[in-house]
Amino acid sequence: MLDIQKIREDFPILSRQVYGKPLVYLDNAATSQTPKCVVDKIAESYYMSNANVHRGVHFLSQEATNIMEQSRRHIQRYINARHPHEIIFTRGTTESINLVASSFGEAFLQPGDEVIISEMEHHANIVPWQLLETRKGIRIQVIPITPAGELDMEVFRGLFSPKTKLVSITYVSNVLGTINPVKDIIDTAHRHEVPVLIDGAQAIPHLKVDVQALDADFFVFSAHKVYGPTGFGVLYGKEQWLDRMPPYQGGGEMIAHVSFEKTTFNELPFKFEAGTPDYIGASAFSTALSYVEKIGIENIAAHENELTQYATQRMQEIPGMRIFGTARQKGAVISFLIGNSHPYDVGMLIDKMGVAVRTGHHCAQPLMHALGIEATARASFAIYNTREEVDIFIESLKRAAAMLQ
Ligand code: PMP
């Protein structure tokens, strides 16, 4: 049994009040809160072991380099990558996808080639491919969703052609909560000899990830959604792909030798890490992963699933409640509308009661279009949320619904 009250004590922000009410933070799919151990790690790094990595022979620089490389190995173990150099540090999911689009695009995509994505993608997994449509004349093929908010796998299987060069798909939808059958997607794509990028932004906080078991070619995620720092993220890529991909950005660290006649590039992972990396972010993220490991990702998922089910069930008490996304496999995300009320109004009213939910298109406008709506309100859960908070959420929704009628 998890002691959630004790876990809550690790997150000082949870004892805050907003508008004189205890904070009920249900916007975890946007960013999770940060435990004290992670913030302490950042402070300790700046206080005690800050020095630029790689370039120095002095003690502190070597120490900082060692800590950064230990963090890389921790992330490698955490997602079960084969090699530490398959872990590339980025600013987050968005930059990781842009890196692949730019670099894989340059190496492997020709005009007329096709990239398969889905209707439920975050803009971060749409727009980089659209930029390639403009720059390289590639084409995007889109897997539609079913009324339950699952990928239409029949259509997906029919989308492959000799022009298909990449599948890029989200593991868990940030709007619908759908957990996609990514193993099946990867196996299908591999039968066509097509590599697959998995957007793991919403999976990493909730699911055990094993990139080798999945056989993912690329797997990307952000630290800030799994109790880590903002501005830090990961691109996992199989060595066989990364080796053949050109650098994304040029600068220091990513070179082996520079002259005006000819510059040669550093080996993996440094080829993709131009400039001073966020070594403090890396070690803080490693601390966040240790925090998750201490609790156990399965325990986290079980707790979040229980809250999601309880909230889904209690939300039926509200007249006019519409929930978007009823997939059989679902993460800890509930998107909803109440009658004809605008989700912004619902969000603003419950905010005054201390309850933080997200409202808007959730960076998934094509999905909103497919659902025939403009926006939703979205509640999403993390390890520190409680049933009592769900009760406050429901009561606040009831009050908001009554006011908006
Ligand atoms: N993909 C998905 C599925 C997401 O939920 C998010 C964050 N909302 C992103 C990509 C982008 O993540 P980031 O803003 O951390 O780069």
Automatic annotation (TrEMBL):
The keyword Transferase applies. It catalyses: (sulfur carrier)-H + L-cysteine = (sulfur carrier)-SH + L-alanine. Residues 24-393 form the Aminotransferase class V domain. Its cofactor is pyridoxal 5'-phosphate. GO terms for biological process: cysteine metabolic process. The keyword Transferase applies. It is an enzyme of class 2 (transferase). Pfam families: Aminotran_5. Its EC number is 2.8.1.7. GO terms for molecular function: cysteine desulfurase activity; pyridoxal phosphate binding. It comes from the Bacteria. Keywords: Pyridoxal phosphate, Transferase. Catalyzes the removal of elemental sulfur and selenium atoms from L-cysteine, L-cystine, L-selenocysteine, and L-selenocystine to produce L-alanine. Belongs to the class-V pyridoxal-phosphate-dependent aminotransferase family. Csd subfamily. This is Probable cysteine desulfurase. It comes from Candidatus Gallibacteroides avistercoris.
